[in-house]
Each structure stands twice: as C-alpha cells, then as structure tokens.
Design goal:
The complex is a heterotrimer of chains A (303), B (299) and C (455). Chain A is built from twelve helices and one strand. Chain A is an all-alpha fold. Chain A has one domain: MetI-like (MetI-like fold, Orthogonal Bundle), CATH 1.10.3720.10. Helices cover 42% and strands 13% of the residues of chain C. Chain C is built from 18 helices and 13 strands. Chains in contact: A-B, A-C, B-C.
Chain lengths: 303, 299, 455
C-alpha cells in the first residue's frame, strides 16, 4: 500500500522531466532503433523499401575506416579519461586547500569553458607547430630536434599524442568545476577532526576526500567515458574535416565521425539508417562500459 | 618544552613549503589554461598583416591593437537582437531545467519506486547516442507541432521561443549530477523530517535544495552556457534572422566569396559573445562561495 | 504496472513512427504548370541564400527593384550562413514538408534534393513565350552544368559564378624579363622552365614557383587536360585510368622539382599569405579571392609591396584546354503553388538578367552568367584595363583572365548516391595531398581513393 503510494508520487515528481524527455529524447532514440532496420530509407520522401536485419550494420562495418575509428576511439577513451580525471582531482583539491586567491584561480580555470573552440584550435595549432610552436621550443632547450606533431605528413603517434593533450586540456575546466562544487559541499567537520588527530595529508586525501567525493568522481568518470566515446569535435578542431594531418587524412577518425559522415548525406538513400547503425554500435559499446562502471561503483561509492 | 617548540617550527616550515608548492602548481596550471584565452584576445586585436606573420607575434604593442575588428564584427550581425533572444531563451530553458531536474533528481535519489534503476539506466544510455541523431528527428517533431510556421504562415516569435527552449528544458546530464549530490545528504535528515511530519515536497525545498546550492548554481551556469553556445539547433529552427541566437552571428565572420575565414574578426565576435557570459559567471561565483559558507547545515 | 505503462508508451511511439514512413511506391510527380498570367493576389515567396551583410545589401537592392516591378509579390530573403548550413537545413525542411520557395545551391545539393523530387524542372518556364529566357545567351558550360540531371532537363539557373586564375609576382617575373599575358594561358611545361630560374633561395627567387589552392580542383581539372577519367554523373569512380595516372605522375614530378606546391606545404588552407610573404612566386585560386593576393603598403614579405600580375591558369601543351567553373545556382522547390512558382521564376529571371548579372559581377567579383552581361556597356567599361578605375584594377584584370577562359570552362559532375560527387571531389583532393606529402605513391593514392569511395 505504502509502496504503491510512493510509486505514484515518484512518477509525479518525474513527470515534468519525463514528458519532455519522451518527446525530445526517447522518441528520437526509438526512432534510431527503428530506422536501423529499414532498407533503403529515403529521408526526404520518408519512404523505405522493406526491412533488413543486419544490412545497415554490415554497411558500417564494411566502411574502410571502421577499424581505424574503433582503434582511435578506444585509445582516446582509455588514455584521456583517467589522465584528465586525475589532473582535475589534484587541481581542485589544491585549489580547495587555499583561501587567498581561490576565486581568482577558479575563474581562470573556468575560462576554457567559455573560450571559443576555434580560438582553442588555433592556439593548439600554434602550440604544436613544428617550427615555432611552444612545445618544440621547449624541447629545443634539451637539444631535442623539432618534432612534426600535427603538420603535413605527421605520424599517427605524434598526431594522437597532440590530440590527447588537446582533449585532456579541453575537458579540465568542467571537471574542476564539478569537483570543486563537490569539495565545497564536504563538511569541514571531517577535516577539522583529521587536523585534531594530525592525520597526514595523503591519508586525508585517500581516506576522507576521495570517499566523500566518490559520487562526483563516479559522475565525472561515467559522463567522461560517454563523452570520450563520442569524441569528434576535438578531432575536427585540431585537424579540420580531413580528420587527420594533411597527407594522412582520416588517421584520427573516430566512431562518431562515421555517424557524422553518414549524416552529412541525409539526402542520400539509406544514409540515415547507416548513421543509426553506427550510433547503435557505439551506443552498445558505451552502454556495456557504463553498466560495468555502475556495477563496480555499487561497492566503492560512498554515499 | 624546547623540543616541542622545535617540532612546532619544523611543522610550520613544512606547512609554508607545502603552501608555496601548492601556489606554484596552481600558477603554473593557470598559465597553461590561459594560453588559448590569451591567444583569442591577441588574435582579436591583430590587423590582417600582424595575423599572417611567421613566426606569430606573441606580444603585440598596444599602439598596434586594432579595435576595428570589433566594429566590423558588430556590423556583421544584429548582435543586440541576438543577445536579447539568447537571454530570453537561456532564461526559459534554465528555469525549466532547474525545476524538472530538481524534481527528477529527488525521485531518483530519495524515493524508492519500482523500476527506478532500470529507468535511470535508460536515461543514462540515451546520452550515448550522438546528438545529431536527435536533431534530425526533433526537427520533424517541432515542424509537425507547427512551431516552424508553414508554407503560408510565417513563424511567430512565440513559436520560435518554444522551438528554441522546450527541448532544452530538461537534461539527463544534470539530473544525474544533482542526484549524486542529493544522495550524499544523510538519510537521517530525511527520516527525522518524516517523523516531524514534514512532507516530501517541503523537505525537498527547505532542506535538500539549500544544501545542494553549489551544485544547482553550477547547473544554472552550465545550462545558460549551453544555450549561449548552441549553434546547430537555433539555426535550424528559426526562420527569421531576428529570432536567432548569438552564435549564429559568429559564423558570418568569413569571406563569403572565397570561404576564407577572417580569424581576427571571428575572434572579436567570439569575445563579444563570451564577455557577458564571463560577467555573469563572476557575479554568480561570489554567490556560490557565500552559499556554501552560509548554508550552515552540519551533517 | 508502471513498467507496462512505459512499454505501452514506447510501443505507441514506435507505431506512430511507422505511421510516418511509407513503403516506396509510385511517387506522384505533379506536372509543372506555367500560368499564363501572374495572379493579382498577394504572393509571398521565401528565398534562401548564404549572403551576409554587404553582399545581401546588394541582393536586397535587386529584390527591391523586383518588388517594384511586381507589386503583389513579396520576397522574404533569408541568409542561412554557409552552404553547409543551408544544405542541411534544406534537407530537414524537405523531410518535414516545410521548404522555402527558391534557394541557391551547388549541383550536388540539387542532386540530393532530387532524391526527394524536391525541386522542379524549369524547362517550361525557360521556353515559355511570355516568361521565358533565351538559353543560348547563358554561358554554355553553365547551361550544361544545370541540365546534367536525369533527362537532360534544366533544374536550376546559374547565379554566382567564379573560376580560377593565376596571380603572379610581377616584380620577380620582370626581373627575369618574362612577360605573361593577362588573357593567354601558359603551359605547365613553360612553368617548368621558369622554375629552373625562379625556384631557389636567392634574392629574386621563391621556395616554390606556383601554389595551387584547391588540390581537388587541380586533380579534376588536370585529369581533364590530360584527357583522363575522373567520375561521371552515374557516380562511377574512374580514376584508375592511364591518362589520369600519367597526369598524377607528372604532378608528382612538379612537386619534386618545387615547381608546384599545395598550401599544406605551409600547413595552410590557402596559399595567399605565403604568396604575399614571398614563399611562392605564383598562386592559383578562385577569382573571387583576388583581394587576398594583393600586397598592401608595408607588406612584410621578402619582396615588400611587389607588383602583381594576373593570368589564366596553366594548360597542358597539346592537351585539352580546361578550367573549373564553380559557384552556386538557383532552383525552385516543388512544395509550392503555381503562383509561387511563377513568382520565383520571375525573381530568378530578374536576378540573372543582363543588367543585374553584370552589376552583381562588378560589385562582388563573381562572373556574369550571360554573354549579354559580359557585352553590356557597363561590364565592358569594367573590363577595359586601359581606362580602368584604379581602385578596381585587379578586379578588372581578374575579370579579363576569367573571360579569356570562358570557352573551356568545365564543371564537376553531380550525383547523390550514398557516395556523392562532393565525396569523390574531397577524396581527389586528399589523394593529391598525400602524393605531395609523400605519404603515398601515385598508385597507392589512387588505390586508397577507390577504396574510400567504393565499398
């Protein structure tokens, strides 16, 4: 009886969000799952020519860039997420530990979030420039020969390294902001208690800060994973629509780039179903990882 | 006695060293973060000639600053109208988002109902589909709802506002975020309130929302920013130039004949768009700090 | 209970969905009817383009003129920002059944719209006794381009056209006593001989002789000059062709001898900046981009404020003369009434009239779409370099170089299968870039291009 009442109340609380989500999120989602089984769907006429179970999926897998897209996407996910979460965590803990100039630093760290993507792209092009870029200038002090990071004919490794730096940099502002708002919600009592017991800094970090911040860390890790699996804008920002350094086009292609490539042809027959198929492949992989993370976190996250 | 003073001195010295180290680290990090922003400002005041010099000019003397880039950027699009529209749309979508998010996050964090975890997983999973997939279907939805006008009737301002803000009046991203904060609030508070006969609704607004203030303000900032930076959707669903948002003005900063981008003007335009946002952030930031220190809730 | 509700909800959604889409069957193509008289009623037409302030003012003036001629027609002209934005918005609006009345676009856009029968054939309007135009007055290549669709029917009219030209550092060329004509194309072979003198790091030398802005245009255009294959309107990729391969081998040789460079040599998208700097002594680009290649007082490059000359683009000795013409055309959408179609047609007719096209060309740097536009007194005065307006000297020289190439204009074939003509074009450009960057041999580049396009 009580449970039933609670159920009703819960759905009532959820209803404003759910109504909007039903129209603008679930419906397109279902639509994607529907489109993927249509044969020769013509978006312009909203007509199709029968059904197919795997036809659209097989078209995506046959794409000459599919393998490279998978490799790059996994590389970006498993390098950029841990590294950027770590950096953001340390920076926000350091920032939270000071009193003077905290607001000042906080504002600066937030700036990338409001910086125009093209400005960031241009700045990074300059940072990685072979002849007068900051990184090669810096390496020059240690007698390292200039490296072709992102220029014409740059290798996969160099281009990927640059892309990762750019990706990590780009995600920090948001993560620091979330961690900081999490840290500020932690009750000072815990730290006061630790100070009385003169607990060492490292122990305070691992035994108080991280556990109490664990819901935020979980949030950031999951959303970053999802975001990193959807990497695309960073590649375009750094390499343009060629999706790779000049001379090595598409060497930085990602899974989402396959979706966008199909979506650029929405007027062509079958293209939308193909985009849906690529989306669903990506969706399944991401979902698998999210479920694993949620499952692991059940044991680790402290509420 | 003497010994304890010595220990005190050592620990104070260690503390100072640690502080210096922390500040050094923060400053270094700030510099790394600032480079692109500096680049943006620098580019926006460069003349076309200074822009194309190799190696690029790192420090531009003030007498060579070109403020006419801002002038031409402002001339390229009706920014004042765009700003007004953006403010209205940000306001609508942010207010909507805050309400739907608070209610939904409360349900997910405090109420036990059948299918909660399943529903939450469905919500999360919808974040995994690339945004453009949604845009294509949503455009047809909005068009079928009649918000884009039809062949004989032009779109009204009200229709445009609906099309621009309604799809963004809720966000799974922020529901998830707020849920994480809500779940941290100790259960004891909730049970105590139940015993006192406080209704869930009252509890939510009197206790949970004030505690979660930093998170909610963060959501407000992020959401407003999202509207401010939205490009594809506003361009798609507005049929009249006067209904568009600020970012739609940014794209005009390229030469239409040759397709070459005029970077300095584009950066000037970007700064014009960014500046109001920064001011709002400055104002709200103080509010976050105050919100935290005064919330006074002790777990 | 609730799970059931969710299930029902989703099921009903899916059902509504399937309701929206129908099986491919007979698509009713409404015949085009040309009204004998323009109705008296108020007619509103919507025109989508990409022109921002400056150019749109000019367009607005032409539209105001038009509205004065036909007081019951009101034109709402909307700029959609860029061609990409315009196309994606048009595609969505076609699917949603909420299109404008007429719009500008490239042939590959129109080919895509034709997948949804969304634009109408214009033949009946063109040939109409009251409203028609004389098609022979339009530049031949433009007519061919706009009638390359199924049935050889004109689906669009040429509008803002441009082509390519070669800008060169006249100061350097004068130093060697080499004179280039403003209207006679040089050959690639001649460029090779110039390179032996001009390429180097001496005082009157450049690192490379000539830059080519658009690697895709170079590929397409040069394969035509070598009588090689590229692609066709059926969408076949034909680049594995002896003549095309020999063209690419030749270009590869030009890269090696530093006769020819692509902008990626300097990590750029265009070579103008490097031309001004003196890294390269000639540059080939769009006639619409001339202003970027003129050194201003105080130019910081190697040659300071050097003199500039303009010539047609190079041709192959004994080959097929060819140069790309490019730029958008205008089409009328099918989701319109007969009155709207007639009003739209009248607007197109007005915008492409001899006076309007000449005026548009002089003010914007595009080219007239009609021979009579070229022959108009106004445009002839503009072309007359002996009595040019000094402020428009380079624009006049550009127009002359462009006009000299009219007879061998060629266009991209347009198609929109799953692989579109613009994909083939992009891959052609990337193939040449890979050859230039030496990341692929000619054979590898061709094999890769085919692999990327046929799967």
């Amino acid at each position: 009886m009580l449970e039933e009442k609670n159920n009703l109340k819960a759905w009532l609380y959820l209803s404003p969000a759910l109504v909007l989500l039903a129209v603008f999120t679930f419906y397109p989602l279902f639509n994607a799952f529907y489109l993927v089984f249509l044969k020769d769907f013509n978006y312009l006429l909203r007509e199709f020519d029968g059904y197919t179970l795997l036809g659209n999926f097989s078209y995506v897998v046959r794409n000459p860039n599919f393998k490279q897209a998978m490799i790059n996407t996994f590389f970006i996910v498993f390098v950029s997420v841990p590294v950027s979460v770590m950096i953001a965590l340390f920076v926000s803990v350091a920032l939270n530990s000071i009193k003077k100039l905290q607001g000042f630093f906080q504002t600066i760290y937030f700036l990338p979030y409001v910086t125009n993507a093209i400005a960031v792209g241009m700045a990074f092009a300059f940072i990685f420039h072979q002849d007068y870029g900051l990184i090669n200038t810096f390496l020059g002090w240690f007698n390292v020969n200039p490296i072709n990071w992102v220029g014409t004919g740059a290798s996969w490794g160099n281009a990927m390294f640059s892309l990762l730096v750019y990706t990590i940099w780009g995600g920090l502002a948001f993560k620091i902001m979330i961690f900081l708002s999490g840290l500020q919600s932690i009750d000072k009592q815990y730290y006061d208690a630790a100070r009385v017991d003169s607990t060492p800094r490292r122990r305070v970090f691992t035994k108080i800060t991280v556990p109490l911040l664990s819901p935020m860390i979980l949030y950031i890790v999951i959303t970053s994973f999802i975001g990193a699996f959807k990497a695309y804008a960073t590649v375009v920002g750094m390499f343009g629509v060629g999706l790779g350094p000049a001379g090595n086009p598409k060497s930085m292609i990602t899974m989402v780039a396959l979706v966008y490539d199909a979506l650029e042809h929405t007027g062509s027959i079958g293209a939308i179903s193909e985009a849906a198929a690529a989306s669903i492949i990506l969706f399944s992989i991401t979902l698998l990882f999210t479920i694993i993370q949620m499952w692991v976190s059940k044991k680790r996250v402290h509420y | 006695m003497e010994n304890s003073i010595k220990i005190d001195k050592v620990s104070r010295r260690n503390k100072i060293i640690a502080k210096v180290f922390v500040y050094f680290f923060l400053v270094l990090f700030a510099v790394i973060i600032l480079i692109p922003f500096y680049w943006m400002v620098l580019t926006s005041v460069k003349s076309m000639q200074d822009l194309t010099v190799t190696p690029p000019i790192l420090f531009l003397p003030f007498d060579r600053w070109r403020l006419d880039n801002f002038q031409s950027a402002l001339n390229a699009a009706p920014y004042l109208i765009f700003m007004r529209n953006t403010v209205i749309v940000s306001f609508l979508s942010t207010v909507g988002t805050i309400f739907t998010t608070i209610f939904a996050a409360f349900a997910f964090s405090r109420l036990n109902f059948k299918g909660r975890d399943t529903l939450f997983m469905i919500l999360l999973s919808s974040m995994m589909i690339p945004g453009e997939m949604f845009v294509i279907t949503n455009f047809i939805t909005v068009s079928d709802l009649g918000w884009l006008g039809s062949n004989n009737v032009s779109q009204t301002y009200g229709d445009a506002l609906k099309a621009l803000s309604l799809p963004f009046m809720t966000s799974i991203f922020y529901i998830f975020f707020l849920r994480q904060t809500f779940r941290q609030i100790p259960n004891e508070l909730y049970y105590a309130a139940k015993v006192d006969g406080t209704s869930d609704f009252k509890y939510l607004w009197r206790i949970m929302v004030p505690i979660a203030k930093p998170t909610i303000i963060t959501i407000i900032i992020l959401n407003a920013m999202g509207t401010w930076n939205a490009y594809i959707w506003p361009n798609l669903v507005t049929d009249n130039v006067n209904f568009r948002l600020v970012t739609n003005g940014l794209r005009t900063a390229y030469n239409q004949l040759s397709g070459q981008v005029i970077y300095n003007e584009q950066m000037a335009a970007a700064l014009i768009v960014t500046l109001p946002l920064l001011i709002v952030f400055f104002l709200l930031k103080k509010y976050i700090m105050r919100g935290v220190s005064r919330s006074g809730i002790k777990g | 209970m609730k799970k059931l509700l969710v299930f029902m909800l989703s099921l009903s959604l899916v059902l509504t969905l399937s309701g929206c889409y129908s099986k491919t069957g007979e698509t009713e193509t409404e015949g085009v009817v040309v009204l004998a008289e323009l109705p008296d009623e108020e007619i509103n037409i919507t025109f989508w383009h990409i022109y921002g302030q400056g150019k749109s003012e000019l367009l607005d003036a032409l539209i105001a003129e038009f509205e004065e001629m036909y007081p019951n027609i009101t034109v709402e002209s909307i700029s959609q920002g860029s061609y990409t934005d315009l196309k994606s918005k048009a595609i969505s609006s076609i699917s949603a059944g909420n299109t404008p009345d007429l719009l500008v676009g490239y042939p590959d856009h129109f080919a895509e719209y034709l997948n949804g029968n969304a634009i109408i054939p214009l033949d009946l309007f063109i040939n109409d006794e009251t409203w028609g135009v004389d098609l022979t007055d339009f530049i031949d290549s433009y007519v061919e381009e706009n009638s390359q669709y199924e049935g050889g029917v004109m689906y669009s009219m040429p509008y803002s056209k441009s082509t390519e030209m070669m800008v060169y550092n006249k100061t350097v060329f004068d130093h060697y006593g080499i004179t280039l004509s403003n209207t006679e194309p040089v050959t690639w072979e001649e460029l090779e001989t110039y390179a032996t003198q001009i390429v180097g790091d001496g005082e009157f030398q450049c690192d490379y002789l000539v830059n080519y802005d658009s690697s895709a245009n170079l590929f397409i255009n040069a394969s035509r000059q070598w009588d090689g294959q590229y692609t066709n309107t059926a969408g076949e990729v034909l680049v594995d062709d002896a003549n095309t391969v020999s063209m690419l081998n030749y270009m590869s040789g030009l890269f090696d001898s530093k006769t020819l460079a692509l902008p990626i040599a300097w990590d750029e998208s265009y070579g103008s900046a490097n031309f001004l700097k003196g890294d390269v002594c000639m540059t080939i680009g769009s006639t619409a981009g001339i202003a970027y290649n003129i050194p201003l007082p105080g130019n910081v490059g190697k040659f300071g404020q050097f003199e500039v000359g303009i010539a047609p683009i190079p041709q192959k000795e004994g080959g097929v003369n060819s140069v790309m013409q490019q730029g958008p055309n205008i089409a009328i959408m099918s989701d319109t009434t007969d009155a709207e179609r007639l009003a739209s047609w009248l607007l197109i007719k007005h915008l492409t009239s001899a006076e309007a096209t000449a005026q548009w060309a002089i003010d914007t740097g595009y080219l007239p779409v009609r021979y009579s536009g070229y022959e108009s007194a106004e445009y002839q005065a503009f072309l007359d370099t002996a009595n040019y307006d000094p402020d428009w000297k380079y624009q006049s020289m550009t127009a002359n170089a462009a006009y000299a190439q009219v007879d061998f204009f060629q266009y991209d074939p347009a198609f929109a299968n799953r692989v579109t003509s613009s994909d083939v074009r992009d891959e052609a450009g990337l193939a040449l870039e890979a050859i230039f960057a030496k990341t692929k041999t000619v054979q590898e580049a061709i094999a890769n291009m085919i692999a990327q396009l046929v799967w």
